[in-house]
Amino acid sequence: MFIEKPPPPNSRACAYTCGSHCYTNSEVSAAQHGGYNLYSSNDYVNDYSHEYHNYEGSDFPVPGEYYEFPIMSNGDTYDGGSPGADRVIFNTDDQLAGVITHTGASGNDFVACTE
Asked: Where is the signal peptide, in residue numbers (predicted)?
């Protein structure tokens, strides 16, 4: 009989890595959900969520008019204050377009986080 050992308590399955920050699927989903809820209710927290103009020309897997919302490295849903460097990008149909970061980008630009 084979019994699989559970992963170590600090083990995380990274869906996206932005700089040195690892985000799980559930963290990405929670940030997207928080951002989309604000977008759909025409509400804001410190000017988020707001339209993302994609000046960098990222090739997202979903069509859209895109919106950005902070994803927090501590796992909390953004509720004001400093947004940090990382963002989830979603469209008006609540489809995830990707996760981007200021980390490693020039000036105030963004680069894609790695999957």
From this structure: none
pLDDT value at 9 more than 50: no
Catalytic annotation present for 21: no
Q: How far apart are CA 34 and CA 110, in angstroms?
A: 21
pLDDT tens for 71-103 read 999 989 999 999 999 999 999 999 999 999 999
Q: Which CATH superfamily is domain 16-112 in?
A: Microbial ribonucleases (3.10.450.30)
Give catalytic status of residue 68 as yes or no: yes
Strands 111-112 and 96-101: what pairing? antiparallel
Catalytic, 102? Answer yes
Catalytic residue chosen out of the listed positions 21, 53, 65, 102: 102
Structure tokens, 47 = 């000017």
